[in-house]
Amino acid sequence: MRSAVVSPLLLLAACAADGPEGVYIDDFPDRSPVLACAVVDIAGPPASVVRLKAVNDSLLAVIADGDREILLLGHDLVARARVRWEEEGPAALVEPVDVELVGDTLLAVADRGRARLSFLDLQGLPRGSLPLGFAPHRVLRDGEAWLVSAVPLAPTHAEILYRVVGEERVGMGIRPVHEAAIQLKALANATVLERARGGRVIVAHQFLVPRSHLLDLPPEGGGAPAIRDVATPLPEGVRSAVGYRPEPPFADEAMRRLLTPVLEASPDAAGGGILYLTRTGRMSGDTWEKALVRVDADMNYLASWIFPVNVGPFAWLPERGEVVAVADDERWYRCPIPAGGGT
User: Fold this and answer.
1) H/E element holding 338?
2) Residue 222 has what pLDDT?
3) Confidence of residue 168 (pLDDT cuts 50, 70, 90)
4) For 80, 89, 239, 320, which has the most beta carbons within 10 A of its beta carbon?
């Protein structure tokens, strides 16, 4: 059921009863320019990239599962460091899914397979670990602590996000989404974790759930965070996927129809919030067309662009005004972001 229009850009619609109303972006293809992306040749391109992110103002981190390497790249995409991980032994990484750079020489790696944060120096030597007691999905440095999002599969897992300080794990108050099938529960509770302007943390669901959680963290030791749930703005073309759930045995074609609100995200100082990757609802060849959406720190829609290629992991380089992305053919692209777009 449609509700009143609150701006000329956004069309609101009723969503799940336990969440905020859905926000859909009208005329998305018309208001979203197609980006001019160019292939980039980089030396020794990493294989099977599972994570690409900016870890500071000058470096990108890449987790390349195919090479068992974590790379630090300059914004010129030249490797500054290559850290190879071991598959066996007490310091081995089993399933690294995210990474942060501590100072200039230490990597903090979220290892889902071992349910811990593992610390490596830039020579790949182990520098300790921090057991979590849950499977991590994303990690973000928070002063002397860590914010770690979880994949809450067990019934005893009652949180999506924890603040980890030494041996202490404190749930941030974001409850998991219930799904009857464990495969769908894992997808529904997978989230991105990004810091917006002013220190706000945005936790947005990647699949099935068109909702984001906005966390304003108190000063250290100041109690629980203030949390506000908001709808994730989505292209009008994906409205029919909201609420869709496939039936077991979950055929590939049925899973391809799942809602994907925020596939990947990157902090965005220009808009004050984040840039995120989503689907437009249209097909491009035999794949879903992808788009980049800019929102502010309250998840209000600001602008959008359409990718001409099927990209996955990406990072936003504000000083260059471009996105660096890896496509499904493992080629790398630079995509300049023009002023305006979707406004």
Assistant:
1) none
2) 67
3) very high
4) 239
